[in-house]
Amino acid sequence: MVNRKELDPESSPRAAYGARMRRLREKHGWNQDDLAEKLGCSSQHISAVETARKPPTLPFSLKLDLAFSTTGSAEAFEREWREMRHGSLLEGFPEYVGHEGRAVEFRLYNIGIVPGLLQTPEYARVLADSAVRRGAITPQQADERVSFLADRQAALVRPRPPMLFVTMDESCIRRPVGGAAVMNAQLASLVEFAELPNTLLQVAPYGIGERRTFDLPVNLLTLPDRSVICYAESQSQGHLDRESTSVLPMLTAYHQLQGEALSQAASVAMINEARKGTR
Fold first, then answer.
1. What is the pLDDT of residue 198?
2. Residue 25: which residues within 8 A CB-CB, separation 6 or more?
3. Where are the beta strands (DSSP E) in 36-118?
């Protein structure tokens, strides 16, 4: 075959994914155009995933499983995709993300950076690339982080979307990330988010001082059975908690924080004021 790129499946998880995808495709007697037609994408995209030039996504993996009849099996591409993503995530976070797709209410609090579910692709890319320059992650892991975040955001688009309560420390909108253009677009996206019917966006201003109830990022999910789980993390580790004796006090603290934070109208006004410094 002309221009066939040989892969070393041992070189990276992405290469192993692509090599297995190619192997199964050829076992079925399909060329890249055949598989592309079945998945509803281009043959160029098939080639890019097979040669590890592009990371696979969750929707892509699910379609592969349908095409190869591997859905739900030990050989499922969805399973391999999740294992790849989990390798660069903090402990507890993969399980937490697994609940996001069915949660009916989100309560998010963040310090310093905009919460992931509200980040623009450009903002997320700047953060990932910064981690690469520090040597904290590899370029491949940076690509996976950005792709993983996009999949999480896409999972929120449902016929009956969940309620999203977001309280951000003022530092999230004051800390410049990626330069004026990136920051301006991110702040504009926050204003648009606040206009949605299923959202409440509040800024916890510096002025509340010691009345700020959290010193670390906190995510609280309400599930369809009305149970609540909590995920909190530090710089190096995360913790998922589902015990009501410890989760309910976190929920109370979140409500107390909302009481101290600015109203949504005042929060949007503060965000728009911050935008003036990015134009």
1. 96
2. 31, 32, 34, 35, 46, 50
3. 105-110
- Residues above pLDDT 70, as percent of the chain: 91
Tokens describing residue 275: 């935008």
Q: What is the CATH number of the domain that holds 117?
A: 3.30.870
Supply the DSSP symbol for 3: T
Same-domain status, 121 and 201: yes
Residue 39 CA to residue 204 CA, distance in Å, equals 45
pLDDT at position 85 = 66
Burial 113-122 (b: 16+ CB within 10 A, else e): bbbbbbbbeb
What is the rounded distance in angstroms from the CA atom of residue 215 to the CA atom of residue 253? 11
Element (H, E) at 199: strand 199-204
CB 278: neighbour CB atoms within 10 A? 16
Alpha carbon distance 102, 216 (integer Å): 25
Neighbours of 73 (CB within 10 A): 12
Residue 224 to residue 163: CA distance in whole angstroms:
12
Last residue of a domain, one of 86, 108, 134: 86
Greater confidence (78 vs 46) lies with 46
- 43 and 159 together in one domain: no
User: d(Cα 175, Cα 130) in Å, to the nearest integer?
Assistant: 15
Q: How many domains, in total, are found in the chain?
A: 2
Largest CA distance in the chain: 67
Q: Do residues 172 and 120 touch, judged by C-beta distance below 8 A? A: no
**Residue-number span of the structural domain to which 33 is assigned:** 13-86
* pLDDT tens per residue, range 121-145: 999 999 999 989 988 778 888 888 8
Is 239 contained in some domain? yes
- The amino acid that residue 49 corresponds to is V
